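Hi R.,

Here's the input for the zinc ion complex you asked about:
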Amino acid sequence: MVFAVGPLTSPDSGGGDEAALSPVLAGETPPAVPVYFFEAGGSESLSAKLEEHPYLESCRKVSAMAGYGGADLLLSTEWGRGMEVDLPERCFQELSAASVAPAAVGSEAVAKLAVAVKPRYHFAASEGAFFQRPPYRNYGSSGCMHTTRFISLGELAAGSAAPKDKTKKWVHALNLEPIAFMKKDDLSKRSADTTDCPYVPVDPNNRTVFVGNLRSGDVSAEQLEALFRAAGPLSGLPGAGKSGFGGGPHKADGRLECWFCLASPQLEDHLVCSVADEIYLAQPKGGLVPGHVLIVPVSHQQRYSELSAEGAKEAEQYKESFKRYCLSCGCEPFFFERCVPTKGAHHLHIQAVPIPAGEGSRGARILMRSEGTRHGMTFQEVPEDADLRATLKDGPYFYAELPGDVVGSRVRLIHRGGNIDARGNRRHVPLQFGRDVAAKLLSMPERAHWRDCSLPKAKEILQADIFKEAFKRQL
Ligand SMILES: [Zn+2]
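And here is the predicted structure with zinc ion in place:
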């Protein structure tokens, strides 16, 4: 079938366009395939009215139903507002070359509609520029779903022949297999450039309040609610012993200058995604991908062996939850920790990065060993039954957990001591080593340094909120 979007006739044709089309429209010359005409892009935009339209609410209700699998196609005049969130630099250059300022275009209502219906393909045409966005993930009630490919079609100037320039493509052919007939595995496939959903709106009524320095059991949910009356009703109170393995007292020994101590004024609490008794989870500044997180002790501990038995248990539980999160997104986890004892400044943080499952994750060990060799590092395997606190007890080390031979399995590797540089001198393991390996595994070498990936605070908040929403189902 063919969908024709936009005005089909031009006043400049002197009625020639109408004459050419009228036998088709009158049914005298039936087209070879069904054709649907969308007379959009005129003086009045439909999506401006969409916000109040009951259709949007109906779409939301339908898509919130259990078992909703998504729509095959969404055709809209306008782009969704916020489409540019998470785009790589090359896309901004492409858009700029096509004279489109992505942040200035798009409709909020179309973005909401796309979030609600979760189309596999979303076509829009209002900007008159051909543009294919890297696919983005959708989230449903059961976690990650298929991706959406947003495609903006170019403009066919009235009366002109079809432009040869590929960047001005105005027609797009698609061999589309309906979602209802697709295998789950095929639906969950992701390309390496997949981003998180750019549209998920922040609910202004839903705020997170962190409360510290309270002894467990001292304060009831009602008392807290009275304290935070202005914030509205409280939910998900870990301290009230309601959820998961979280909750409890947090010591007030946070170092004032430490970025990671939960009680430190330096802590950027909008990045915190989950808090348990002794361990918390936060997004790093300039993460590699939206699912990149850190597993960090609440109080100032320098190495894994300093964790209490309970702290180590929580860290491992967070690893398990993160693994479930990864598997739900078609990924596998890569954990790494670099420990270089310093005069008390270092605060333990285990990096957790989702790696697309498949060849990339199977080859992770080989890549890490070969990258290590370049830096004079040698890795030993840590047996599955070895106690991690005892293993990581002495000296500097670089420790990693990588995908094993089958999906969901792991291999634990450790390099002890520093590394030997080209001149034969012993040095510390390079600060960037783990992140470099992860960036290569993600085929994103350009994102190896966090400074190249830092986001404005508003986007950090949005990204953390999206992660929290997906991660809480795996706790
Ligand atoms: Zn600290």
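One thing worth noting: Confidence is low (pLDDT under 50) at residues 41-45, 202-208, 238-253.

Cheers,
M.
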